[in-house]
Write a structure and sequence with these properties.
heteropentamer; B: about 260 residues; alpha/beta; 2 domains; six-stranded mixed beta sheet; four-stranded antiparallel beta sheet; about 40% helix; globular; D: about 260 residues; five-stranded mixed beta sheet; binds adenosine-5'-triphosphate; binds magnesium ion
């Protein structure tokens, strides 16, 4: 099989269409993960014991099982109990839930990394619990989290091909569809690899920048 | 003689199996300057942290300025204090830590104004005016807009003192406030504390390994060992004629290590 | 659905066969990933620029392109270059190289985290770089790596689900087969969810045990 | 030359790609692979002196690349002959023939009888396997891409139909019948055959270059057809032997 | 008079735009005990680190025991030293760090025997015998099987000294070896160093803020400020009659902070 540049230009628009959906799913998934992660983290750290433990179990369960199977579940099993989500929405929820469990760990680590002395200084200056969170802990906890969260954003981006299992026409699915109807596989699949590599190299630069920007908070 | 401002009655502090304070009692008079000295691990920090309500106590009672610290009256009896009670009691007490614990994301001025504005509802302008006075007092008025990371250790600690003073507590607790500092920077902090001791009638409790400073600063010295007060008295008594053997050994070692008394 | 007497015990047996494949992939993939993680991770901190560049290229390439594309290449494109691997080999290779790239960063991070002070002590004691790495840095770095390695192993376990792309009869694939043959979605998928979770649990339990072993004696050093 | 056949004889088995789609393929609870396509392949290979087949289930999309990459020796999966495919692989003579069918909601509310009907109804969504004949037929009839949903497998397609995510699910008649009978859902009905859609036949697909093996296969297949064995194998699964025997590769590959 | 064992000739050390050592020259005689004192940031640590080859130098030459440290002869000229040369030179030098830098995963005995076994190929039994002698010398023979985490700071530092001695270097460098210790523990380390100074003829360079100890320990004191040697002389001269204003201010501050001289 030989590489055919004409074919490459022919399929480019279709693949770019797929890339658009991939990016959309990533952005929406990230938004869901950010919020759900915070909910998980707060439940685990502050809720009454039984709820905290139950949340812990759910988080561990989601983290321990493949996203692919979870997507099947959301898309094909949930309708049995009357929840019928459009494919993209189901995908976004799946991604969000799965990566939310990772985000929760980042939040927890970020908050635990605020030195105990800061909590104590807040107490010694008689701040209330709420004031301590808002004025002392979160402003210090969030910036160092940002690179780690961005890391998961990139990981999520690379897992979007799973959405093809639930009929979302993202990049990988478009490529497969193109390949199937033309019986040429190497070009579309290689292009997908190249797209991923380009996006990921861009994001590496972006990450370095984030890390530098936010790692300096302490020394400022 | 005035009534004690702090009355510690038979308190016990345990960490798991380890008993750190074992039925400790002591009293502090209003305006008194007290130095707590003793070997490492003897419980000096613990007693300050308990007074600042950073720990809980396993047993006993503490009265601060006429009110119970860890308890509050209810239906004629005493019950464990709730958050509101603790919050009210903490108004009377301020603390300066060994590692400063400044808020690194806020400038010097904001470090000092944050608590008055949030806990006492002081207006921003008033809080900043008072903060500038205090920063001036500790010699750092020109650093008001700096971030803590831009300061030397000694400067940080002076800001921390100003921050604690901004709430005008009746009692100030100092836990080894110079021991994380380069030797050259120790003096600037001690100077601020000398000024504070001579110019205000605040009650002060000081934990230190600077025997010379303890001697000059304190009205009374408490020597701790293994969670108990082994010996107490005026500085001259303790340093020149310690009665207890434990105190003698401790002081001998400290002196041999090159500290002036 | 009740009209056929579905032989569930038989189909669950099929899924268990898939579980065995998943297990093989996980174990062998982890082994390869571990080797690659150390090779590339130490390569990243090498003082030879060529070695560093090679390691960096490997890491960025495998972290950058998606595991799907890598599997596709290993399975469908590599044969054109004359390398034909069995599905299991292809799966192990792709997963191992992919996760190894992530592991390499863990190794590098842990080695770096064993601070300047320990390195300097080694120089002052006149140890060579190799001796310092082997006797001082790695033994301390290992406990730091383990928790992340545990996560990586679980990621790899989950990654095995995508090998159904290359017709490897892993657990997810078998669940699909059972689903097609029985017309039932819930049972096969619920079964494999539980199985995956149990395997993940086994990995983290084993890692915790290992962690306790390698940190013995270090208690109280790292705060 | 017969190198490939000798090679298969030597190793004692042929590697066959099959689909996860009854009744073309069936997997028993004990894991044994049967179904019309593998059964025929097994029998022909036996006669060729290749003792057994090793069947591996594959996505439709992965079959041809797998064949090209030498992962399988042959595909017997209901991969219907069409001119473009004939260019990509070397087909045997026809084996399994089937028309196209629709599964849709009881009473056919949208009145869909052909791919053209779907194209004309802007609300109608069709599900079909990615890279399959049905997807192509729908697209060729003018159904826009965003109304042709690529469905990974039969059960998923049926489920999506039941859940109202698609209005039509299109597969060969026998596949649809098998799916619908397993689902036993009174709200689903079948339209078969689809109007205007040709009858298609699959053949065993070999790699380009393995024509010698393909020719040997054809010889034994023809004997099998003649003896009546062929009908005995495929008719229990619902396929018509007569249909396969009434057409040729040449016709099917030329058809437009 | 013997030839100097260390000859530092006009070295320059820069970190980016910052010049830390600016054309520093000094000599040390074999067996000499030298104390380096001076304010924070003056470059004391830097010079020790350079001698230990933990840094590179930007310019200048250093000769140790007759050989160039950062250079080696080649084709009649001098070229930058390669790893082998540095490895050979490091045999002559040992260093003890402020934070001990013990290997936390090895027991005390293994900490001491590791380097002799690896770098000199000493057999295990011989290395352990020598290690036990050294541990005995620093008073820790009974802790040989303990892990570093089970030791106090003072004990850790004594192990670190034994570890450095195990390689029998000609020159020992000590960088603020007591400043990370609790005051009570300082003395046990200084005692070991006193013993070392009086019993061996090793050349020793000591950076310290313990003025009293510097006075007793050193044959000669170098006072550093901003990367230069501002003043040097016998301990009595420097401490009793410092000639330079900078030295006077420094000593005044240190004394005010409670250190004995
Ligand atoms: N959070 C804790 N958990 C367990 N033990 C603790 C904790 N905090 C303190 N301790 C123990 O309590 C004892 C007293 O500690 P404390 O910090 O009060 O001593 P100290 O007199 O301040 O000593 P130093 O001079 O070293 O600061 C010590 O044995 C210490 O190990
Ligand atoms: N790695 C480095 N990068 C940049 N600047 C450095 C580095 N190491 C040291 N310096 C700077 O070099 C100067 C001299 O530092 P050095 O540690 O030698 O001082 P010192 O005399 O040992 O001080 P101290 O008494 O505080 O230990 C300081 O200004 C310091 O900030
Ligand atoms: Mg303390
Ligand atoms: Mg220094």
């Amino acid at each position: 099989m030989e590489w055919d540049w004409n074919f490459v230009w022919e399929i480019m628009p279709t693949l770019l269409q797929g890339l658009k959906i991939t990016l959309l799913a990533t952005v929406l998934g990230a938004a869901v993960a950010t919020v759900i992660g915070l909910v998980f983290a707060i439940l685990r750290m502050t809720a009454p014991k039984p709820i905290a433990r139950a949340t812990g179990f759910v988080v561990e369960f989601i983290r321990g099982t493949p996203l692919l199977v979870q997507l099947y579940f959301i898309f094909y099993v949930l309708p049995d109990i009357g929840i019928r989500l459009p494919a993209l929405l189901a995908g976004v929820i799946g991604l969000g839930l799965h990566y939310g469990t990772y985000a929760a760990e980042v939040y927890r680590a970020g908050i635990e990394n605020v030195p105990r002395g800061q909590w104590e200084a807040a107490k010694a200056t008689n701040l209330t619990g709420r004031q301590t969170w808002i004025h002392v802990v979160l402003p210090q906890a969030i910036p160092p989290m940002i690179p780690a969260l961005a890391n998961y954003l990139i990981a999520m981006f690379k897992e979007t091909p799973l959405l093809s299992a639930i009929t979302v026409l993202e990049l990988m699915n478009q490529a497969k569809s193109v390949a199937n109807s033309s019986y040429r596989y190497i070009e579309p699949m290689t292009l997908v690899g190249v797209f991923f590599l380009i996006m990921s190299l861009i994001s590496v630069v972006f990450l370095r920048w984030l890390e530098e920007r936010y790692a300096r908070v302490e020394e400022r | 003689m005035a009534a004690p401002i702090i009355r510690i009655d038979n308190i016990v502090k345990r960490y798991g199996p380890l008993t750190v304070l074992d039925g400790l009692s002591m009293e502090v008079l209003p305006g008194e300057k007290l130095a707590l000295i003793g070997p490492s691990g003897s419980g000096k920090t613990t007693i300050l942290r308990i007074l600042m309500t950073l720990e809980t106590i396993s047993d006993g009672h503490i009265e601060v300025d006429g009110d119970q610290l860890y308890h509050m009256p209810k239906n004629g009896g005493l019950v464990p204090a709730d958050d509101r009670h603790l919050h009210r009691m903490r108004e009377k007490i301020g603390m300066v830590f060994q590692h400063f614990n400044l808020f690194p994301h806020k400038c010097v001025l904001d470090n000092v104004t944050l608590a008055p504005m949030l806990t006492k509802g002081v207006a921003k302008a008033a809080a900043e005016k008072r903060a500038m006075e205090l920063l001036d007092m500790v010699g750092l008025a020109d650093k008001a807009k700096n971030m803590p990371a831009q300061l030397s250790g000694g400067q940080k600690q002076r800001v921390a003192i100003a921050r604690a003073l901004a709430l005008s507590p009746k009692i100030m607790l100092f836990d080894e406030v110079t021991s994380a500092l380069d030797p050259e920077l120790v003096e600037e902090v001690l100077n601020v504390m000398r000024k504070l001791a001579s110019e205000t009638d605040m009650t002060m409790l000081l934990v230190t390994h600077e025997m010379g400073f303890a001697h000059d600063f304190a009205d009374r010295i408490l020597f701790f060992d293994r969670g108990r007060i082994v010996e107490e008295g005026k500085p001259d008594e303790i340093f020149r004629n310690p009665r207890q053997e434990r105190t003698q050994t401790f002081l001998r070692k400290i002196i041999a290590a090159g500290h002036r008394v | 659905m009740e009209h056929t007497m579905t032989d569930w015990s038989g189909y669950i047996g099929l899924i268990l066969q898939g579980a065995l494949v998943t297990l093989q992939l996980t174990v062998m993939g982890s082994a390869l990933a571990l080797v690659m993680a150390f090779v590339a991770g130490l390569g990243r901190v090498s003082r030879f620029i060529a070695v560093r560049a090679l390691a960096t290229t490997y890491i960025e390439f495998f972290r950058g392109t998606s595991i799907f594309v890598q599997l596709f290449w290993v399975y469908f494109v590599l044969p054109f270059a004359g390398v034909t691997l069995s599905p299991l080999q292809a799966g192990v290779l792709a997963l191992g190289l992919n996760v190894g790239a992530y592991g390499a960063e863990v190794v590098r991070g842990a080695v770096k985290a064993i601070g300047r002070e320990q390195r300097e002590a080694c120089i002052a004691l006149n140890l060579t770089r190799g001796q310092a790495m082997r006797h001082v840095i790695l033994p301390q770095a290992l406990p730091l790596m383990l928790p992340t390695f545990c996560n990586n192993a679980i990621e790899l376990l989950k990654g095995t689900a995508v090998v159904s792309l290359i017709s490897l009869t892993d657990m997810t694939f078998q669940a699909q087969v059972v689903r097609a043959q029985t017309g039932n979605t819930l049972i096969p998928f619920a079964t494999i969810l539980v199985l995956y979770f149990l395997m993940a649990l086994a990995i983290s339990t084993a890692m915790r045990w290992l962690e306790r072993r390698v940190t013995r004696g270090l208690d109280g050093v790292r705060t | 030359d017969d190198g490939k056949l000798e090679e298969l004889k030597g190793q004692g088995f042929a590697r066959v790609a099959i689909a996860n789609e009854p009744p073309f393929t069936a997997v028993a609870a004990d894991g044994k692979v049967s179904g019309a396509a593998p059964d025929v392949a097994r029998e022909v290979f036996k006669r060729l002196g290749v003792g057994d087949i090793v069947a591996s289930i594959s996505e439709y999309g992965a079959m041809i690349p797998g064949l090209q990459a030498g992962r399988h020796d042959v595909i017997t999966a209901g991969l219907f002959m069409k001119p473009e495919r004939c260019a990509a692989v070397a087909y045997s003579e026809p084996i399994l023939c089937d028309a196209e069918a629709f599964a849709l909601k009881k009473g056919n509310p949208l009145g869909l009888k052909s791919y053209k009907d779907i194209a004309d109804n802007p609300d109608a969504k069709i599900g079909a396997p990615g890279g399959g004949t049905e997807e192509k037929l729908a697209l060729e009839a003018g159904v826009p891409r965003d109304r042709v949903i690529v469905v990974p497998d039969g059960q998923s397609g049926l489920k999506m139909l039941q859940d109202g995510r698609i209005d039509v699910y299109s597969l060969p008649v026998l596949s649809i019948n098998d799916l619908v009978s397993k689902a036993n859902d009174p709200n689903i009905e079948v339209v078969a055959p689809v109007e205007g859609a040709p009858v298609y036949c699959d053949g065993a697909a070999f790699r380009k270059g393995d024509e010698a093996l393909r020719d040997a296969f054809d010889v034994e297949l023809a004997k099998l057809k003649e003896s009546g064995e062929f009908a005995k194998i495929i008719e229990p699964y619902g396929f018509s032997a007569a249909a396969a025997m009434s057409t040729t590769r040449e016709k099917l590959c030329a058809a437009q």
